[in-house]
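User: What would this chain look like folded?
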Amino acid sequence: MSGKASVLVTGSGGVIGRNVVDHFVAQGYSVRGITRREPEEHEGWDHIAADLLDKQSTLEAMGQAKDTTHLVFAAYIEKQNPTELIQVNMDLLHNTLDALEAVGAPLEHVTLYQGMKYYGANLGRFKTPALENDERLISPNFYYEQQELLQRVASERGYHWTIFRPEGVQGYAQGTPMNLLMALAAYVSITSELGVPLRFPGSRTTYDQVFYQVTDAELLAEATEWAGTTKVAYDEAFNLTNGDVFRWSHLFAAIADHYGMKLEEPQEMKLAERMPTYQPLWNQMVGHHGLRHITWEQTVDWNFADMIWNSEWDNVSSTIKVRKAGFQGCHDTITRTLELLDDLIERKIIPPLGKSAPVL
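Assistant: Here's the prediction, encoded as structure tokens.
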């Protein structure tokens, strides 16, 4: 990107969007972010309030971003019904692209995010390691629809695109409950506060046997800048993860060791049914430890955690393509996860854990 690049991030309040905004601001770019609600803080960047499902609202928003050269599309709305999921997320992208065209934005590049659902990771056992050129599935998938829309529109209007397919994105973003890091942090925090041993709450098969992978949100943000500045990344889709795989048994053992917690055998349970009971305890913890006031509902989506921790099949994608293209960023996931948990403690999002935790 040149010094005149102007970056617009949709979904700037989410775990991906928040970290992308922070990265581009730190690199000195002109940055705007779009969400429906005003964020608590947006130092170094301009916030635009808009409902991207509303064409008029989107058009008015883009009127404030007429100089956008690089669009980072991180907006997403969850729906259980596949037809509704496709329609609502297609509307988000369609409205955004059309509004930028209508205001005459000099768009050069669009980054779009997908995920392992592209390969059927949500349906059951799938081909691993997943490759970017794997054939599509018959199952309806909004990723397919969005990709076709972006490819067609970009070709017609003369700009480029890059698609990233991360998995289990880990990073801090306030009020974004569909976040694997926050699920892990909240679960370990409650375990620590109760003074009980740490136990994996999902399937024993998932704990012992499954290989999983995650994508660090800051790493994804770095890759997003790379995609907008590197011609070899134009008009290509890339798997993008930390570059390693791990088993949950190893990660939970590392967490227990790091914080001086006792680790015991897994105990399968439905967190979506059990964890809401701890809302009063969480509120007490916020006051006692001087944590930031984030409600229990905003902290974590336990249905999302249940899905991840009960998936009894490997989730592995190849990242060879992006590395051959020149992006070499990577993390040791276990080490990085401990760093992220420590960071949440430092930010006062969660309390001190294990031996360092004061007693209520």
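The mean pLDDT is 94. If you want, I can go into more detail on any region.
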